[in-house]
Amino acid sequence: MPRYGRLGAALAALTLLTGLVGATPASAAPTTSLASAVLTYPTAGGTAVSVNDVIQASLKTGTNATFYNSTSGSTGVRCAASTFSAKVLTNPTAPGTATESLTAQSFTSCTTNIFGTTGVQSVAVNNLPYATSVTSAGVVTISGTATAPIQSTVVLSSLLGTITCVYRTSTNKLVGTASNATNSITFTNQPLTKFSGPSLCFGTAYFTATYSPIRDTSKTGSPAVYVNAS
Questions:
Q1: Closest CA to 101 of 125, 127, 133
Q2: Is residue 8 a contact partner of residue 33, using CB atoms and an 8 Å limit?
Q3: What is the pTM of this model?
Q4: Can you say whether residue 189 is alpha, beta or left, with left for phi > 0 and alpha for psi between -120 and 50 degrees?
Q5: pLDDT in tens for each of the 230 residues of the chain?
Q6: What's the distance, Cα to Cα, between the start and end of the chain in Å?
Q7: Where are the domains of the chain?
Q8: Which of 25, 86, 179, 193 has its CA 20 to 30 A from that of 218?
Q9: Of all helices (H) and strands (E), which one includes residue 160?
């Protein structure tokens, strides 16, 4: 679940044709460019992130992950802490698409201002791991399957007791944007539709969160990870 750039190098070779006087003069071989991988560290156009490396991030400082009742509303559940962890599966030469497996995602320190509720017991992401892809254009897509759909379960305390709201996406995908400028991945108003739960659960909850900085925790010092266009 993202300062992702350009690596260039030129190689020149001189080939001499040996033989009699009057042989064809030496000529220079063409220049060859070495392209970046889609994911690099610790800079754009840096070293390719290795397959099986673990990429992790928490919420951008000063922001919250929110599940609100509309794209412009402020009623719903707000979490002050959230983290994700993903394992890199492929990291081809850019332009291209890197693939990952989202193995963990958590939401904690959550509060609610939904009428009739008094607190948040838990917000859980179900059916992990999810397939994840990152394109050179910075498009991040999280995908579920028919047997393991993208699903989140929100357990709330209410005046009438505990209520459980289960949400799924209608497309079985969540789409975000990776930014090298802020070393982040942002999900904005991603719709989650109620799968089960009482009337206090929103029919649609819109998920918004920004994770930054994105880091390769398999490398010493957990360097920042970037997406490269070429």
A1: 133
A2: yes
A3: 0.84
A4: left
A5: 444 443 333 333 333 333 323 333 333 333 334 579 999 999 999 999 999 999 999 999 999 999 999 999 999 999 999 999 999 999 999 999 999 999 999 999 999 999 999 999 999 999 999 999 999 999 999 999 999 999 999 999 998 899 999 999 999 999 999 999 999 999 999 999 999 999 999 999 999 999 999 999 999 999 999 999 98
A6: 21
A7: 50-218
A8: 179
A9: none
Count other C-beta atoms under 10 Å from residue 129's C-beta: 15
**DSSP per-residue letters across 42-110:** SSTT-EEPPTT-EEEEEBPTT--EEEESSSS---EEEEEEEEEEEEEEE--BSSSEEEEEEEEEEEEEE
Q: How many CA atoms lie within 13 A of 153 on its CB side?
A: 12
- Two structure tokens written together for 65: 């992950």
- Contact predicate 51/87, CB 8 Å: no
Using alpha carbons, select from 190, 187, 195, 221 the residue that is nearest to residue 205.
Answer: 190
Question: What residues form DSSP beta bridges with 81?
Answer: 108
Q: Token digits for 177?
A: 């944007």
How far apart, in whole angstroms, are the C-alpha atoms of residue 189 and residue 72? 9
Six token digits for residue 39: 């994911």
